[in-house]
Amino acid sequence: MNTASILSALEAKHPGESEYLQAVKEVLLSIEDVYNQHPEFERASIIERLVEPDRVFMFKVPWVDDNGRIQVNLGYRVQFNNVIGPYKGGIRFHASVNLSSLKFLGFEQTFKNALTTLPMGGGKGGSDFSPRGKSDMEVMRFCQAFILELWRHIGPNTDVPAGDIGVGGREIGYMYGMYRRLALENTGTFTGKGLDFGGSLIRPEATGFGGLYFVDRMLKTKGLELKGKTVAISGFGNVAWGAALKATQLGAKVVTISGPDGYVYDPDGIAGEKIDYMLELRNSGEDIVAPYAEKYGVAFFPDQRPWQQKVDIALPCAIQNELNETDAQTLIDNGVLCVAEISNMGCTAEAVDLFIDKKIMFAPGKAVNAGGVATSGLEMTQNAMHLQWTEAEVDQKLHQIMNNIHEQCCVYGKQSDGYINYVKGANVAGFMKVAKAMMAQGVV
Ligand code: GLU
């Protein structure tokens, strides 16, 4: 494979799509060796076919705000690859959403979903609409307008959307309600639904829980455990909440959370009612963490990121590229043991290279955060069977899946010196599954 020429051709075709190009580059660099051992992949142009989404829907979303004014946002659904199963992936509502970010997320999702061992392809969607500061009715009208266009392209065996940044239970409920009216069916064409209408137990916690099960496995490879370790978390949404809950249950101490306004440092640990308070903060619609510092009398660092604190474990849980090379160096200087992305592509490429170069335990989002979409897969299974599993059943399956993903990363990522390169491991394991399925299904 001539990685440089593939990348430059892609850059010429899609100028300015920096996140998408960053994600493709990371995958190509780590699969190069394995790819070159399979000339049949080259003959079948697997890479050229894999880096482009199957199709992209892009549409306007006109809606009426509380003042009677008409607003127009952009809506997207990127159906990236369905060779393994129906397109599957979240919907993101955030001001930063554009085609590049959704193509990067759809591309990553394809490999992540392959890693889960469940039959799901990759997709992603969203809008530059931000629910922050909007009333419930505004959010409902927006979600309905979004689905008025999207509904015809999705279905329980075609494309199954879910939540992501800015899309939680409330937004899924509004979107699913509108979808059900238009499609005249109720077969679960969304995951992350409310428990009363087909949702799965553990789904809200799953991304964070799965992330911590994975970190636990990483530590065990060195004979270490989570108990007694300090943890820095960024974000304070669904993912950060689940991560804080499980880290605390496993005996670690979470000392930071963050929002767009800065971060909070709580040396006593964010546990018990303080974790519940995160939910209150999130639901307040303000999208800031400063009130936590005031309520519990701890330090607040405006406009800064939590990576400057001395911790054993760092878990980015917010958005892409939220931890850069300087942050990585600070964490390393402070003796960090393990960094695991629970957000998608939470670290910049330079930060990742530095962690790997210094042999710090580091694992990428597509492995660490796969528990969210895996539990969505379990929700699809329960919907198809028209029944609901218990919390213990779902949690046990999620735990098993995360252990399995860790195992696959070791198979493909363990170096001769014993260091586990999880980036390589996850990329190669995900790629091999997708590539083999594409080979088996011919040129389609
Ligand atoms: N948005 C989540 C992710 O990035 C979950 C997707 C899903 O459940 O389909 O994997």
Task: Enumerate the distinct ligands.
Answer: glutamic acid
Derived from helix and strand composition plus strand pairing, the structural class reads: alpha/beta
* CATH uppermost class of the largest domain: Alpha Beta
Integer average pLDDT: 97
Assign the CATH superfamily of the largest domain: NAD(P)-binding Rossmann-like Domain
> Could you tell me the number of beta strands?
12
Radius of gyration: 21 Å
> Stretches where pLDDT falls below 50 for ≥5 residues?
none
Counted by DSSP, the helix tally is: 17
H/E series: HHHHEEEHEHEHHEHEEHHEEHEHEHHHH
Shape-level CATH architecture of the largest domain: 3-Layer(aba) Sandwich
The main pleated sheet reads as: 7 strands, mixed
Termini gap: 21 Å
CATH topology of the largest domain: Rossmann fold
What does the model show?
This protein is of the alpha/beta class and 444 residues long. The protein has three domains: 51 residues, no CATH class; 134 residues, 3-Layer(aba) Sandwich (Rossmann fold), CATH 3.40.50.10860; 163 residues, Rossmann fold, CATH 3.40.50.720. 49% of the residues lie in helices and 15% in strands. The chain contains 17 helices and twelve strands. A hairpin with a 5-residue loop joins strand 1 and strand 2. Helix 1 runs antiparallel to helix 2 and helix 6 crosses helix 7. The mean pLDDT is 97. The site of glutamic acid has 11 residues, from strand 3 and helix 15.
